[in-house]
Every structure is written in structure tokens, then in C-alpha cells.
Design goal:
- It is built from twelve helices and 15 strands.
- By secondary structure, the protein is an alpha+beta fold.
- The chain has two domains: 171 residues, Chloramphenicol Acetyltransferase (2-Layer Sandwich); 241 residues, Nonribosomal peptide synthetase, condensation domain (Chloramphenicol Acetyltransferase, 2-Layer Sandwich).
- The strands form three sheets. A six-stranded mixed beta sheet has the order 5-6-7-2-13-12, with helices on both faces. A six-stranded mixed beta sheet has the order 8-15-14-11-9-10. A three-stranded antiparallel beta sheet has the order 1-4-3, with no helix packed on it.
- A hairpin with a 6-residue loop joins strand 6 and strand 7.
- It starts with a strand and ends in a 12-residue tail after the last helix.
- Pfam families: WS_DGAT_C, WS_DGAT_cat.
Length: 469
């Protein structure tokens, strides 16, 4: 790969980062030992395998450097001194004999939170992988950290999927086939644009500016000067990180959706709203006068878009109805609000702030990032994102993938980010929080599981679907 300018939104993520607010996303992938009679795979062997596969992904060999033009811009360029084992490392967990799994899951989750706290080194390709294992050949986990400038959620999945056995072998066969085929000649083209291209470009820029003005006005209207709300969600950032995980049964979620109507994501957002309410009540907090607002990212990526295309995001703003006591009414409120968001489309409204960022020049991102970072708190209280994963079973070195817990970054002024993914018939939830603002994050994770159980218990018997219309 040659040199490639960072797209405006990628540049925004790059400049939004501070030491206390690293802008990397991640995932904690948990693996079971290889099934018998396959030989056991050591953690050191997994490190070697990860290193070889990561080194074969061209995007992971690129670092960010400043450029003279455009002013304030930056570009991706190949790291000539690339050493994959500066990025792929092993971490050994002490064993806890009092826990059923030797304390592995609790230890891996705690350690992952500490590792997510550390910013990526900016002079290197902005990613890291850690193999987290015990002393024996038992379960292990791989923590993946990718800077948000490198990839959005969907592109992170596409890049990270290259480490798995099934996808790595497909990629190797594809590369072999490509080398065997003769390249087609490319007809010469003039670098000078024709009149239609000039007219199309001008019309596109006018549409972009018009959209940017519209989104900008929506952002201003939606911003809140009164920042009083749930204390844990509006606490001053400490720069510390804590991670917790939860799991929901996928079939149970679908059963609820068939009755409530809407989409699976609507149900999951309703579960998040109910979990937040339970958590606040259990903490003895007074429910906030205004429901907390969630920023719900929406991908604008088209099928077949390559990894070099950068972030393609918009978002919806959604009030999470924590003040509503009826779980089914919460689902109805969420579904109605999301239907309204979808009818308006991902390019309109205050949630489309990423679209606005995509229209700004490089210099604006370089100098305006500190102001923009502080403004996030005025727009939303919590990030809730869904990350799509491959449906097929995956493995690493013959060890089956058991679960993937996605992790989203925390913007300045934010204390909680919630990411969800579905794999193996289970919905896995990764919760990332400011460690001092939310020391009881595990309680919130359990509240999500409790909320799903209550919704199941309240399922009407023999009633037609779409009760929550």
C-alpha cells in the first residue's frame, strides 16, 4: 500500500484522542481449548500464529504521519520498520483455584479493562493484540485494540476476522488465485476532469454543504446546556477504564421481538434502557428528570467497500426511557423513536454529527478537536452500538471461538459505552466505563440479564405478535 490521506472523519477521531481519552475500539475474543483428539495449542504458539496472520493484513502495517498539504492533514503510509511483535504480545494470568474456571474470565475481563486504558503509541501502526492466558492449556482470550481512525465497527470486524482459521485460509487461497491470474490492461485516462465530472463535483459539494448546515443546525438545537442527569453518567472523567461483560440468549431476544414487533436492535435498546433503570434504582439514585440520551451509530458503508475507505458512520439520537416502569411500554417507546429516526434517515438530525465532521477541512479537525470533544457531553449521555459478526463458527489454531465482547471508546465527558454483538446464538455485551465514575459496572451487566428475564416472564401467552404497536 502507498500513501493515502486520512478521510475527514478518520482525522477527527485521530485528533479527538488525549491520554485520558484514547480513541481505540476493541474486542475481547474468548476461546475454548482445541477439542480432543487435536493436540493442545500453547499460548506462545497462538502469539506466533496471530503475528503471522496480522502481518499479512496490509492495513495493519500502516502508520499515520503528518503531511504539508492539505494543511492540518495526515496520511497513512507503510511503516518501514514494522515489527509485528511490537503489537502482538502475551499476558499471563495468575490462577484462582477458588473459581470454577480458575478465575480466568474474571481475570481476563479485569486485565482487558486495564489494557484498554492505555493509548496506542502514535508513531506506530495504531493497533495491538494481547493473548491473555493461564499457565495451562485451558481457555484463553485475545484482546484486539484498533484505533477508531483505522476502522469503524464494521471495518474493524473485517480486519480482525483475518486472524481466524477459516477466514485466513480463504484469504490465502484468494491471494494465490489472484497471483495466478493475469492482470487486465487498464486503458489510459486523462488526469484532467471532463465538464461532466466538474459539474458533478460542484453539485456534490453543494449538496454536502447543504447537508452539513442542516446537521449543524440540528446539533445546536439538540444540545443541552443543563447537564444534570444520572450522576454516574455525568461524572467528571478520571481517565481510568473498567470492563464488564454480559450475555443474553439470542432465541429469547427473538421471541420478544416477534411479540413486540420492530427489530432485534430495538429489543436490545429496550433491554439497555431497562438495565439502566434497574441499575440506578439498585444504587439508590433518583431517576433523572430527563431520560438519558443514547448515541446509536449507523453504518453508511456500502457492500464491498474496501478497508482503505475509512470510517463511514452516522448515528441516531435516542432517549432511553428509564423513567418508564413498564418493560413492555419501554420497548414500545424505543421502537416508536427508532422508527421515527429511520424515517428521517441517517443523514439528518443531530445524531448525524459524524456526517458533519466528514464535511470539515483538515485544519478544522486539528484545531477544533478539543472543542468538539467537550461538546459530546452536551449531545448524548451514553453510546450504544451494535457490531455485526460472521454467522459461521470460527476458531484460532483449532481452538473454537466461544464469545466476542465488543468494546467502544469513551468520548470526553462520557462515563459509559455499551457495545453488543451476536455470535453462536448469544448476544454478547461489552460495557466500558470510567473506572471511578462507575465502579459497580458488573452490577449493570447483571441488570441487563435480569431485564431480559423479566421481559420473558411477561411474554403474553397465545397473543398475536406486535403487542407493543
Amino acid at each position: 500500500m502507498g500513501t493515502e490521506l486520512l478521510a475527514p472523519l478518520d482525522l477527527a477521531f485521530w485528533h479527538l484522542e488525549t491520554d485520558a481519552h484514547p480513541m481505540h475500539l476493541g474486542a475481547l475474543a474468548v476461546f475454548s481449548p482445541a477439542p480432543a483428539p487435536a493436540p493442545g495449542v500453547t499460548a506462545d504458539a497462538v502469539v506466533e500464529l496471530l503475528g503471522a496472520r496480522a502481518a499479512a493484513i496490509p492495513r495493519l502495517r500502516m502508520r499515520v504521519r503528518d503531511v504539508l498539504l492539505p494543511v492540518g492533514g495526515a496520511a497513512w503510509s507503510a511503516d518501514k520498520d514494522f515489527d509485528v511483535f511490537r503489537h502482538v504480545q502475551r499476558v499471563l494470568l495468575p490462577r484462582d483455584d477458588e473459581s470454577p474456571d480458575g478465575g480466568f474470565m474474571a481475570g481476563a475481563t479485569r486485565l482487558a479493562g486495564e489494557l484498554m486504558e492505555r493509548p496506542l503509541e502514535r508513531g506506530l501502526p495504531p493497533w495491538e493484540m494481547y493473548v491473555i492466558s493461564g499457565a495451562d492449556e485451558g481457555p484463553f482470550a485475545v484482546l484486539v485494540k484498533l484505533h477508531h481512525a483505522l476502522a469503524d465497527g464494521m471495518r474493524a470486524v473485517a480486519i480482525g476476522a483475518g486472524i481466524f482459521d477459516e477466514i485466513a485460509s480463504l484469504g490465502a487461497r484468494a491471494r494465490g488465485g489472484a497471483s495466478a491470474r493475469r492482470a487486465r490492461p487498464v486503458p489510459p485516462r486523462s488526469w484532467m476532469p471532463g465538464p461532466r465530472q466538474v459539474a458533478g463535483f460542484a453539485l456534490g459539494r453543494i449538496e454536502d454543504l447543504s447537508r452539513a448546515f442542516g446537521v449543524g443546525a440540528s446539533v445546536v438545537r439538540a444540545s443541552r446546556l443543563d447537564l444534570r442527569g444520572a450522576p454516574a453518567l455525568t461524572a467528571i472523567s478520571s481517565g481510568t477504564r473498567r470492563l464488564a461483560t454480559a450475555e443474553l440468549d439470542g432465541e429469547s431476544v427473538h421471541r420478544i421481538r416477534r411479540v413486540a414487533g420492530g427489530t432485534t436492535n430495538d429489543v436490545l435498546l429496550g433491554v439497555v434502557a431497562g438495565a439502566l433503570r434497574r441499575w440506578m434504582v439498585e444504587r439508590g439514585e433518583q431517576l433523572p428528570a430527563a431520560d438519558p440520551r443514547a448515541l446509536v451509530p449507523v453504518s453508511r458503508r456500502r457492500p464491498g467497500t474496501g478497508a482503505a475507505s475509512g470510517n463511514r458512520l452516522s448515528a441516531y439520537l435516542l432517549g432511553l426511557p428509564v423513567s418508564e416502569s413498564d418493560p413492555w411500554e419501554r420497548l414500545r417507546i424505543v421502537r416508536t423513536a427508532m422508527d421515527r429516526n429511520k424515517a428521517a434517515g441517517p443523514l439528518r438530525g443531530a445524531g448525524a454529527v459524524a456526517v458533519l465532521a466528514d464535511q470539515l477541512p483538515s485544519l478544522a479537525h486539528r484545531f477544533g478537536a478539543p472543542l468538539a470533544g467537550g461538546a459530546a457531553r452536551m449531545l448524548f449521555d451514553v453510546l450504544v452500538t451494535s457490531v455485526p459478526l460472521p454467522r459461521s463458527a470460527l476458531s484460532l489454531g483449532g481452538c473454537p471461538l466461544r464469545a466476542v465482547y465488543p468494546m467502544a471508546p469513551l468520548a470526553r465527558g462520557q462515563s459509559l459505552a455499551i457495545a453488543l454483538s451476536t455470535y453462536g446464538g448469544r448476544v454478547q455485551i461489552g460495557l466500558v466505563a470510567d473506572g471511578k465514575a462507575v465502579p459497580d459496572l458488573e452490577r449493570l451487566a447483571r441488570c441487563a440479564e435480569d431485564e431480559l428475564r423479566e421481559l420473558l416472564a411477561l411474554l403474553p401467552v397465545g397473543q398475536p405478535s406486535q403487542r407493543a404497536r
